[in-house]
Amino acid sequence: MATVIEAELIRFAQELVKLRSYTGQEKELAMFIKDKMTQLAYDQVKVDGLGNVFGVIGNGPTKILFDSHIDTVEVNDAVQWSVGAFSGAIVNGKLYGRGAVDMKSAVAASVYAGHAIKKLGLDKGKTIYISTSVMEEDYDGEPVHYLLENSGIRPDYAIICEPSNSQLALGHKGRALIKVDVQGVSAHGSAPEKGVNAVYKMNAIIKRVEALGQKFMGIQGDRGSLALTKIDSDAVSLNAIPDHCRIYLDRRLVMGEDEQGLAQEMELLLDGTDATWEIHSVAGKSWKGEDIVLHSFLPAWEIDEAHELTTACVSAFEELNGCKPRMTTWDFSTNGVATSKRGIPTIGFGPGDDKLAHSRDEHCPVSAIVRAFEFYTNLVAHF
Q1: How confident is the model over 97-120, as a mean pLDDT?
Q2: Is 136 marked active-site?
Q3: pLDDT tens digits, one per residue of 132-161
Q4: What domains appear along the chain, each with residue ranges and CATH number?
Q5: Where are the beta strands (DSSP E) in 150-280?
Q6: Which DSSP string corresponds to 346-368?
Q7: Is the preceding peptide bond at 202 cis, omega within 30 degrees of 0?
Q8: Active-site residue identified among 26, 67, 71, 140
Q9: Whole-model pTM?
Q10: What pLDDT does residue 222 have?
Q11: In 120-258, which ranges are continuous DSSP H helix?
Q12: Catalytic residue among 48, 136, 142, 302
């Protein structure tokens, strides 16, 4: 059975990559996954109001959630890929295409793990939720928050299947997206002295941002970071002095950093200026037409190495591989922010190198997809 399932698993992963599923445009892929779960005899298959697809195996008291998001970032350089960006081709033992790493290989591994768990009877005394969530790329955590809030799912444990190079991810850094605004006074470009150039005013703040970012980089050990990621301005024409300038800051967070501390940091950064700031909110609509808003402050989370979820993962990995897994922490934010906020013990494990996410020629070793499938299946037996 194992060889047959593995072959089907890899074909499924290839089909997932072939179907484009940009954020907010996941309908076709969501329906494909829904049909696959139905074909694989899941006990229940549901699509929630946002468009998340989740399957249920078993009905026991121990509840375990596996989450993988199905949306991807866009491809704007397809002609420069050496292997088609939506080919789903396997070259030298690696699955190529957008989402191969982030994170359709994990979707395939978890969906087929649900199937194997049922086939092998590992669901006895457990309820297994296989979540394939939408819109993670722009709305980290919000889709899973919606799922948990509206589905009645109350897992005891959560496994986030983001790429971890087949290591155990014990947490992730947090993230805040900050918008800083400066007002100026418009004037004709031929008479700049009659206006106040908002971009020039912002320049002093940019220098402060750069200095604070450098200070973070000099911290030894676990540290946050600060980077200016976007700047734009408004003017009534191209020959007018801009009367508004805004910048966006990406602030990475470590354990213990909260919104109150961030507010103090920003007030100090902008001291003596008339700039205003806010934590940026991102709003959009899902493929089902449901509104979604992300308040872009996502705290860091971590799980202790001695926690029962961690030890179960270590045992499951060691049983399959003959050695203990390496431990890591993700530098990026994940849907784990939603489960950890609710006090659900959360850990990460997924196939592929996260450094290849969003990159040209994104690819994932086929062997890593199979290992993830085996790990997810075996992990359930350790509860």
Answers
A1: 97
A2: yes
A3: 999 999 999 999 999 999 998 999 999 999
A4: 2-172+300-380 (3.40.630.10), 174-285 (3.30.70.360)
A5: 157-160, 168-172, 174-183, 225-234, 244-253, 276-279
A6: EEE--SS-GGGTTSTT-EEEHHH
A7: no
A8: 71
A9: 0.92
A10: 87
A11: 142-151, 198-217
A12: 136
